[in-house]
Fold:
Amino acid sequence: MIEMFMENVNRMYSKTELGLLYFPDAADKDTARRHIMVWIKRCKPLWRELEGMGYDANTKYLPPKMVNAIFEYLGEPGC
Structure:
């Protein structure tokens, strides 16, 4: 499973996609998105780094640089 992420880390992910990767058993996609955002916001160093990269509340898709930072701080999904 990890190999899949290493191959796709060079593409954009929506917040919903990331949420579903980290929370595949969530009740629905909106719940998964909210959960991942709670995790991201609670990790202050990650949150500051994402904001420094240009993240704001209207960001729907995360570029590879942001996805790499999320994987670095939170670990890759499924690990």
Q: What stands out?
A: The chain has a mean pLDDT of 90. The helical segments are 2-8, 15-22, 29-42, 44-52, 64-74. The beta strands are 13-14, 61-62. The chain is about 60% helix and 5% strand.
